[in-house]
Amino acid sequence: MKRVLATGLVLGGVALLALAAWVAVRSARYIASEVYPPRQPVERPPAEGAFAGLRDVSFQDRDGLLLKGWYLPPRNGALVILVHGLSGNRTQLLPEARFLAQAGYGLVLFDLGAHGESAGTVSTYGDREAGQVMAAVDFAVRQPEVDARRVGALGFSLGGYSVLKAAAGDPRLKAVVVEAAAVAPAQALQDELGHWGPLGLWPALTVMKRAGVDVNAVQPARDMAALSGRPVLLVAGTEDPWVPDAALDNLLGQGRGPWEKWRVPGTGHGDYLLASPEEYPRRVLGFFSRFL
Predict the structure, then answer these.
(1) Which residue of 1, 74, 113, 123 has the lowest C-beta tally within 10 Å?
(2) What is the mean pLDDT of residues 163-172?
């Protein structure tokens, strides 16, 4: 009996150690896929129709990181910078770019650092990416066709965090659409991995620390408060598990607008145009037409 009990205890201990190792490895791999995102190929759309005049461009952020993108001159003087999500690239927002271009807006679409054709190896949840958005603003306001008083931005997910933080520090961004980005990355990390306790969080934080990523550097509520008085449209799908309505309301409670939110019916993290092919362009174009 004692031998059976001892064997059971040993096997139980081995099982617990195996479970702990599995949790730690899973956590580290999960975060590594976000900090070191896989690159997707960039396919250039034909420079015809709405995209007639689209040009390949490159510019550097203030740390010297080379960023690749496209520029389309405006027909109405106003320009919108489009910023993609994690593991995407500038092509992710081509559908939005198309209806904006058809309405006369100029465009800057670019690959964030560590994505697409841009330099860099580390993604930072919108921290360094905010500086890359500011570099896109630097590029945009130098273009002779652009009215520097009419520059806005639209960012999705990682791009949303980046746009929100950039706008908080750069008054040249006159109006911003922030999509699928409301919960602070530190809180999202806790929600995603915290149920495993330290075994879930410590390996993830170790990966981030080694990559030089500060999970607390991006604070959407703080950035929203800094935008008091500037127009913001918050967009998220009604079925998006990462953007609860309470998080959007928390952002709206940080000050006074003109701020508004829209939950896109029947969709999750993205695919807004597919879910609402008429209402989504109407809302976005209406927002920029009022404030740019």
Answers:
(1) 1
(2) 98
